[in-house]
Amino acid sequence: MAANTANGDAHLAGDHHCRGHEPVAAEPLLGGVVQTAGDRREPLLRAGNTNCGGCGMSIGLSMLGHAAAETPIQLVIPACCGIVTAGPFPYSAYGAPTVAATFASAAAFACGMAHAARLNGDPTRVVCWAGDGGTYDIGMATLSAAAERNDDILYICYDNEIYGNTGGQRSSATPLGASTTTTPGGKDVPKKDIVAVMAAHAIPYAATISLAHPDDAIRKMRYALGATGFRFLHMLAPCPTCWKSEPAEGIELVRLAVRSGLFAVYEVFDGYRTVINVEPELTQEPLERYFKGQGRFRKAGAEIAAVREQNARSWRRLRLRAQAEDGVGVVS
Question: Fewest CB within 10 A of the end CB: N or C in the chain?
């Protein structure tokens, strides 16, 4: 594969044509965002880590480090690929203090750490960095409790739509039609709307993050780091291993998910004011390309018509929330 370039003009080589893929422009690093004097002296994710090539979590961590700059942060990571990233003690791939939490308890750990920082007059921002299994499923009880209490923590879910660290089982974040080790014929129910669940707690801020829209993503990270109370960010994180996709195509897949409407880019303030940040096309072409680029859909023979119908319902609900009284949304 061609390496990423500063202007993104290079095209991917390899087996795209033999697999029926159209060439995809290589992605410039963080959309052209470069290291500046205002960034962290110590990268949040150090070089030489064990993450797979093309891992969306790695890109998200790089963006978070850029957004945080010199803001002191502490990470809380439950059982997931993210805690494997750290590597064996006494070494760490993370350039910030990191606590390994149990699968179900990341938000509870973070709550205690945030209270300790406040009592000590410490400006540290406590950030939960958790996968979809520890957010949508196993960690939901402590997540909901922390949100209800409005604890002063930032919770970021990097959502690869699968239990990627334990063999590729389905989670409630797995989309309709996706094949996993526990749904070999394709998942037969839609993905849980986690942002709507969190917004229902009336937390100060909840938003989705597209890695294909770095300016919007970093803006939201900076806002969430600077805000107080419970904040929730949801990031679609490509997993080439479990999605059965090309590592170099991850950002393009996220872009297609946004264009097709499968991944809505929006934010919710105080549980009601909803702002749609990127308008989707809601057309067949990006949806077909999104499915074609991932073996997890080809194996199951997912029906695009059913996915489009579910997608249209989801967008009708989101637009109603964005247009509700006292919550008129505008595209930024």
Answer: C
